[in-house]
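Budget justification, computational time. The allocation requested in the original proposal was used primarily to generate structure tokens for proteins on the priority list. As evidence of use, we reproduce two of the resulting records. The first is shown immediately below.
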Amino acid sequence: MKDVRLSELLKEVALLFLRLGASSFGGPAAYIALMHHEIVVRRKWVDDQKFLDIMGAVNLIPGPNATEVASHLGLIRAGWMGLVTAGGLFILPGTAAIILVAWAYVTYGSLPQVGWVLYGVKPAVIAIIVQAVWSLARTGIKKPILIVVGLGVLVLYLFGLNEILLLLGGAILVLLIQGGFRLFKPRATGLLIAPVVFFKLPLVGLASGITAFSQTTLFLTFLKMGATLFGSGYVLLAFLRSNFVAGLGWLTDAQVVDAVAVAGQITPGPVFNSAAFVGYLLGGWPSALLAALGIFLPSFILVGLLSRFLPAMRKSWWAGSFLDGINAASLGLMAAVAIQLGRAVLIDWFTILITLGALILLLRFKVSSVWLVLGGGALGIIYKLLVG
């Protein structure tokens, strides 16, 4: 009887999260709103307070937050199998769609018409990133130390410092200051010096110059990203550029933008699915699946661990301080990568106008990012047809 009940619960979880994964457009806020409606309002698996606790807790661990919320809800409903089922099926539709889009991109991407589409799409994506930074900063940056950390990370990243150490350094600094050294006072000096020392160490895999493609390196690089990437999925852009453009030399700046413009915006699911797009560009569908596995695997493990500590974390001062620092550093990274990619994308008056127009539509009229991407692509085609 117990096995029958578990089977029914797993089926319920599977059908729900497969459908949610196939219809989740518009970014993490939209995905989580869909989950709230289905699970709190309609099915009443958890109440509002529990749902909020889960949302807050997943922000303290790296990885795609919406996927982690899905996994945690699956765990509550159907145990450990529910965790894997909910998270896996929420990701599946987007990953499959992105591999299909990547195939079309590789097959037809050199055709002028496809270039015309991307010519209009990329400026719209820059606007989406800028709007995300603005919106998140208004919510999460309310203290002077957070402003300092965000601006410091922006500048240091533009000077070439490693994004992982910037995230951790920012979090530690805010933790020490906001915590009033209550816990770390005897070790404060060492903790403040540690990030500076780490910044001076050579970073394996980030040396400049082109490195021969390796599926092992591909998997380990995305595994590292999945295990260390906090904040919005758009922070992934900074990681992609640092590792695959500046580090390994496997991608160009334009391809990094394409990974989000073609994959992250016009297919369902989290921006982290851009990993599958990158994997396909580098090594076909086997590398696409390997990249997706690498970037999503840590989130399943971390959600399982998080479930053990969630009640205590809700009241912890240090967890909140650490999260404040991570968020501020993440916003600094997002702003820096927007600047870098903007240099590659905003090349004439037309692309600048698309970005400004998209920003107005986002900030004033709250237009969906999906429509902005589609509209940018259409404008790119029209402009090229008229101007040539």
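The second record produced under the same allocation is shown here.
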Amino acid sequence: MDQTQTVATERTGMNARVRWGGRRWRAAASYLWVLPALALYGLFTIVPLISGIWLALLRWDGIEDAKFIGLDNFERMLRDERLREALGHNLQYAVGTVTGKIVISLGLALLLHQSLRGRAIYRTAIFLPVVMSFVVVGILWTWIYNDDFGLVNNLLRSVGLGGLAQDWLGDTQVALWSLIAVDVWKWYGLHMVIFLAGLQTIPIELYEAARLDGAGRWKQLTSITLPLLRPVMLVNVTLSLLGAMNVFDIPYVMTEGGPANSTNVVALHTYLQAFKFNRLGYGAALSYAIFLFITVIALIQLKLLSRNTSEY
């Protein structure tokens, strides 16, 4: 009897070791599956990120020998008037795009949340610009804004408002606002979808109870819809704000910062310093400054989002 129990115990222990070994092998195999992706991420993201820190401490034009200058590139930012001007354009861009996207996308979401005929077609058409590449959008709107044959000026002339026609991308007073309009057009479909998702989470019973109490549409909007959409609103504001502070594609494709640097933004300024004027060290320093600035904004927005979410 004792021998039988000993054999059973040994067999149980062996089975446990086999199962433990099998679990360890499966866990190791799961890491092996993601190892190629991690290797590529490290090679093209982590390594450049770390090596860029050293580059930011150098004066190098990509041809001659690099010279170590310490923090001079970061100190140079404080004296860079073009950088301050570009940052002001980013702030103007942020105000225009965040306001435009939120107002238009919320209005469309409220409209398309209703039972409308062909609602799915409207939603798809509005979302279509989101999936278009920045290059296509930039070239398309450059033609639309063209002073001679552009759609905007021709439309104004056809309705008797030819006095309002102008060079939308060549006038320093309106060029940046023209780019803001393009950015709003490209992304308001995405924010509309996010608002629609938020509207679908609001219980319909709240609106039924409000109607029984005699509340009209405006009262329902201000007392039920907008308060319950606060977390979703903050998500949309965060996405819009981060995109505005990091915008590059539309100004680069449409104006390259002109005319007279009136559409130059921080990301474009960084690119031009590094690859047009061959100031690679200064461009690297600028890129890290942008990274830290956007990180701070993102952390503030996440803090606000978590605070609003905890209230519901």
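A brief technical remark on that second record: The chain has two domains: 2-55, 72-310.
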